[in-house]
Design a protein that fits this description.
alpha+beta; 273 residues; two-stranded antiparallel sheet
Length: 273
Amino acid sequence: MMKKLVILLAFASITASASLALAGSAAKTGVVGSWHDITYLGNAGIDGYKADQYNRVCAFCHTPHNALPSGLVPAPLWNHAQSTVQLDPYAWASPANLAITIYPSDPLIGPSRLCMGCHDGITAVDSHGSAGSFNGGNTPMSASYPDALGNTAKRYITDLTVTHPIGFQYSQAVSVRNVGTDTELVLPTQGYIADNQVLALGASFNTNNRSSLSYSSKTINDTLYQGYLTCASCHDVHNSVNAAPAPTTTTSYNYFLYAQEEGSAICLSCHVK
């Protein structure tokens, strides 16, 4: 297994210097060779990241020994430097949402805090090791990159007030937004909209009648942290069951999303509009 992994990474370091559009970066192909494989990025010369000296993939987040204490982080055998940033939560724009409480102590509750260990623009992406002695590199996430449309975008987050709200109880949002026959959020027992359906649905998609849709086995409940919506409620960080772009799209992307961008399937997996 290790020999095959080293061969794959060596091949990636030769072929990926100009682009990451390889099989490993496609949706549902696993973390090896994806944007979350820091060794792959380091060997490919991407963003100045330092690859692991043993070409390990998992070590940037997990370790079997000398991990951070389990009570400190909500992840198994965590091995990455933790972000300490404190960010203001999203401020609800709609009066109807004012009754929804964002976790007051830290809107980055659960996996969101772990995500910010790379995506805060401060903590080194390529650092890993035992608690108190992180080794590897010291490179934070780069400021910008060209998106699928050729525009400049940034990978890190410094302001939660301009992102989708996180750190709130999904069940509370359902109770606030679903009143009488007015249904605005799907129940958390529902799965995400499965691939390759959205474009064919057309105008009929924007109704409350969803009987023609099929859904993934991954439910909204499966992605909540103690009932809270986090970054990991939309993003599959291991690139394992996330959605691939529709075959009809003219762009190539992998945002680690549980449903497609086409037709706003990721949005409409929770929102009934």
